[in-house]
Amino acid sequence: MDSKGIGLWIGFIVICAIIYLVSRRMKKQIETKGIETTGVISRITDAGTQDEVDLQYYVRFRAQDGEEIEGILSNPRQDLAEGQTVRVKYHPKYKTNVRLIG
Which of 25, 41, 46, 62 has the greatest CB tally within 10 Å of its CB? Predict the structure, then answer.
């Protein structure tokens, strides 16, 4: 492998590490500073390919300030269905970052 290939791999690894660290930080902030509320699974989409399923679960809820939000669940369960009521926590600054409670 030439130096350009090695450089690309190093860049890829660094980007993956940054994404991982930002994701963990956001998860921790939601757990510590998150606001709990009730929401409804508003839609389930498949972002995968023909050969691969990658379901994205969205939840609609009313934020503490009265704003209606549709956020994506970062920790969905497979037993969720559209229209189902769920308890969630959202980040007060980044309201579309939502986690299921329990």
Answer: 41
CA 101 remoteness from chain centre: 13
Beta strands at 97-100 and 68-73: parallel, antiparallel or unpaired: parallel
- Residue 97: CB atoms within 10 Å: 19
How do residues 26-69 score in pLDDT, each as one tens digit? 777 777 778 999 999 999 998 878 888 889 999 999 999 999 99
Q: What is the pLDDT of residues 4-14, one digit of tens each?
A: 788 888 888 88
Per-residue tokens: 7? 């450089």
CA distance 31 to 9: 33
